[in-house]
Amino acid sequence: MHNALWGQVDEYFNDLISPSDHVLDHILQTSEQAGLPAISISEAQGKFLYMLAGIQGARRILEIGTLAGYSAVWMARAMPEDGQLVTLEFEQLHADVAMDNFKYANLTDKIELRTGSALDTLPQIAKEMSEKNQEPFDMVFIDADKPNYVHYFDWALKLCRVGSVIISDNVVRRGEVINPQSADVNVPGIRAFNETVSVNPCVTSVVLQTVGSKGYDGFMLSRVVA
Ligand code: SAH
Ligand code: DHB
Ligand code: MG
After folding, report:
1. How much is the pLDDT for 2?
2. Global pTM value
């Protein structure tokens, strides 16, 4: 419908205030060359996560769903030298492409990539954090398989502190989120997630509907309050 126009508006602002660079371009190119799906967040969304990580003063970030590493690079860049981003990816091919991209971006000191199903790696991370007395995560970005969002949110809460932020992608799905009979297989998972978040007294949340080069979607932004 108006997607072409909103894409142009996205481009207009990207050129002004979130210019791409050769590293980010390289990530999208290698992703496409390797046949990965074109489902990274947009440039503007990347800049938004970068801003959020900076505002939060994040030193430890957890990402669930790496793909080619595009969103991870945006967030890692917002952290101080000794900051750490842990990113979880199920597909070996995606992880291989992402690892090459983290090397290309000179961010291997800051980014730790773990391959495997996130529901297997999250308990390991929790165990290691308590064994090594590591700080909780200041920010979590949930962007993997939608049917498990409810479980990822529970894990995020276990690994965060009061004041941490949890941001979750794809909660609007071109508006399909309000259709309980949606043909989009991801919608029931997203709806269950939205309901879980809404009744959890430990968080306060808001949705940012997003429009632009990636069409209509949205971020759920939650802040841990208890
Ligand atoms: N955050 C990325 C995009 C992630 S796309 C970016 O914006 O650049 C979603 C990713 O989640 C895919 O790479 C997919 O392989 C991964 N994924 C799907 N199921 C998973 C699981 N169970 N555990 C970990 N990663 C998973
Ligand atoms: C799609 C988009 C995403 O951002 C994602 O994480 C998964 C799927 C999609 O457009 O299908
Ligand atoms: Mg997504």
Report:
1. 58
2. 0.98
144 lines ligand 1 (CB under 6 A): yes
69 Cα nearest atom in ligand 1:
8
The 10s digit of each residue's pLDDT in 62-121 is: 999 999 999 999 999 999 999 999 999 999 999 999 999 999 999 999 999 999 999 999
CA-wise closest residue to 197 among 127, 135, 142: 142
Nearest to 161 by CA among 131, 142, 143, 140: 140
Which class would CATH give 3-224?
Answer: alpha beta
From 170, 174, 176, mutation site for ligand 2 pocket: most ligand atoms within 8 A of C-beta: 170
pLDDT tens across 40-69, in order?
A: 999 999 999 999 999 999 999 999 999 999
- The minimum-distance atom of ligand 1 relative to the CA of 36 is 13
Q: Hey, where are the domains in the chain? A: 3-224
Nearest CA to ligand 1 atom 19: 145
Ligand 2 center–CA 191 separation, angstroms: 15
Q: Is the CB–ligand 1 distance for residue 217 below 6 Å?
A: no
Cα 73 from Cα 96, distance rounded (Å): 15
Residue 12's φ and ψ, nearest 5 degrees, are -55, -50
